[in-house]
Specification:
Residues 19-370 form the Luciferase-like domain. This is Nitrilotriacetate monooxygenase. FMN binds at residues 51, 88, 137, 141, 211-212. Helix 5 (137-155) packs parallel to helix 6 (213-222). This protein is α/β, with parallel strands linked by helices. Helix 1 links the parallel strand 1 and strand 2 (46-49). The chain has a single domain (2-262, 358-417), classed as Luciferase-like domain (TIM Barrel), CATH 3.20.20.30. The chain is built from 14 helices and 13 strands. It has an 8-stranded parallel beta barrel with strand order 1-2-3-4-9-10-11-13, surrounded by 8 helices. The protein has a two-stranded antiparallel sheet with strand order 5-6. The chain has helices spanning 29-41, 61-64, 69-77, 96-109, 137-155, 213-222, 233-249, 271-283, 290-298, 321-332, 337-347, 357-369, 385-400, 413-417; strands spanning 2-6, 46-49, 84-90, 114-119, 163-166, 171-173, 183-184, 189-190, 205-209, 225-228, 258-267, 351-355, 375-378. The longest helix is centred in the middle third of the chain and has 19 residues, at 137-155. The two termini are 25 Å apart. The structure holds flavin mononucleotide (FMN). Flavin mononucleotide binds next to strand 3 and strand 10.
């Protein structure tokens, strides 16, 4: 199986930063580097960074500050040797040339370890960018298709090994290996070529997050890793089957795309201890943030709804997939708005496994064997303790069962994922 560490420096549980012994903070690069190296010591495929382009005083601690994830990757490239480095980048609020260039640069300086998590961005970022509107869901995906085409085209500007460096003849590069894109499309006009050459893995790995119908179509066309939120095995199996089917229909090999749901493990020496840990985390959840956080996760203004009342009915067609997921969760578990908020504060709709290290390893094995996942993006509730438990207790069990590597076989992210070099 494949494993990523989803690094959110205040912890993925909304109250995680308040756990005794927890360290937190996006300004704490020492923590970020230490956790990345810990993931590398456990042979994780990648460390993964989400992103947001807006913040407010109401944002929860895990979201309120966000250094640019690509800049963090560049710093981490010098602090790690083998682990893949994945940053989220928005197709709605970036320029393809600038993003293609920055990603290719990180891929080069990390020796072929970079990946791009393609998102279309839910929150209206137009307040911070010189554009007047936040495009609707379908249009964001139409833009994304063209955006990714342009980025891939730019990454193919240079064939491999273009440097000649023949001092005698005065030939620095073989410019016959340079190709100009000349893209003129509906949303973008980019001539190229890119002024960055290929990395040892050819080009960065394409990761994609966005699980609606249009999100799945984008992923099936381009992605090599799909990050998704799933809380129930049956739904996860259906999502996995739908993705693999669309990948094959797009003329690609089903194994060329790895489906990796998020997973929050809460681990104790006994199940009682694990349940007590979750209760302790929940006691730290700040309920004053409930309406704001639910509004962001449901992509709707719910401020008029009382917390102890029912979860409002909201349309799901053409909406952000997290809304559908959370409404299904609320319906299945008959939750009030306050209870739904606590689920969101726990893991934002991702699966949460509370138990012993054996329980967590069993769960992961079951999901992979049941074709619900090819691996997981691990979301520790708090750092470092919540991740120490995974590295020291769960990973050795997975390795003993032959489910996870004991050493890296290669040096690039494509090597770890079993993907061919992109040339
Ligand atoms: C598991 C998951 C993680 C995501 N992470 C981010 C993120 O870090 N930043 C962001 O702007 N959008 C993120 N998104 C949402 C994407 O922006 C997505 O392109 C957009 O919300 C439309 O999503 P949908 O296809 O799921 O409806 C994420 C979506 C999913 C499903």
């Amino acid at each position: 199986m494949h494993l990523g560490l989803f690094l959110l420096a205040a912890g993925h549980h909304a109250g995680g930063w308040r756990m005794p012994g927890a360290e937190s903070g996006t300004e704490n690069f020492d923590l970020i580097a230490r956790m990345s190296r810990l993931a590398e010591s456990a042979c994780f495929d990648m460390v993964f960074f989400g992103d947001r382009l807006v913040t407010t005083a109401d944002s929860p601690p895990s979201m309120i500050t966000r250094p640019d994830p690509l800049v963090v990757l560049a710093a981490l490239a010098t602090q790690t040797q083998r682990i893949g480095l994945v940053a989220t980048g928005s197709t709605t609020y970036s320029e393809p040339y600038a993003l293609a260039r920055a990603l290719a640069s990180v891929d080069l300086l990390s020796g072929g370890r970079a990946g791009w998590n393609i998102v279309t961005t839910v929150q209206d970022g137009s307040i911070n960018f010189t554009r007047t509107t936040h495009p609707a869901h379908d249009e964001r995906y139409a833009i994304a298709h063209e955006f990714v085409e342009v980025v891939k085209g730019l990454w193919r500007s240079w064939d491999a090994q273009p440097y000649v460096r023949d001092a005698e003849r005065g030939i620095y590069m073989d410019t016959s290996k340079l190709h100009t894109l000349n893209h003129k499309g509906r949303y973008f006009e980019v001539a190229g070529p890119l002024n960055v050459t290929r990395s040892p893995q050819g080009e960065p790995v394409l990761v994609q997050a966005g699980s609606s119908g249009p999100g799945q179509a984008l992923g099936a066309r381009f992605a090599e890793v799909i990050f998704t939120a799933q809380w129930n095995l049956r739904e996860a199996q259906a999502f996995y089957a739908a993705i693999k089917q669309q990948v094959v229909a797009a003329g690609r090999d089903a194994g060329a795309v790895k489906v990796m749901p998020g997973l929050m493990p809460i681990i104790g020496r006994t199940r009682e201890e694990a349940r007590a840990k979750l209760a302790q985390l929940q006691s730290f959840t700040d309920e004053s943030k409930a309406h704001y956080v639910l509004g962001a996760e449901l992509d709707a203004d719910v401020s008029a709804y009382p917390l102890d009342g029912p979860v409002p009915e909201l349309p799901v067609d053409g909406a952000f997939s997290r809304r559908k997921l959370l409404l299904e969760l609320a319906h299945a578990q008959k939750l009030t708005l306050r209870e739904l908020y606590h689920q969101v504060a726990n893991s934002r709709g991702h699966q949460i496994v509370v138990g012993t290290a054996d329980d967590v390893a069993d769960h992961m094995q079951r999901w992979v064997e049941a074709e619900a996942a090819d691996g997981f993006n691990i979301m520790p509730a708090y750092f470092p303790g919540g991740f120490d438990d995974v590295v020291h207790e769960v990973v050795p069990r997975l390795q003993a069962r032959g489910l996870f590597r004991q050493r890296y076989a290669g040096s690039t992210l494509r090597d770890h994922l079993g993907l061919p070099i992109a040339l």
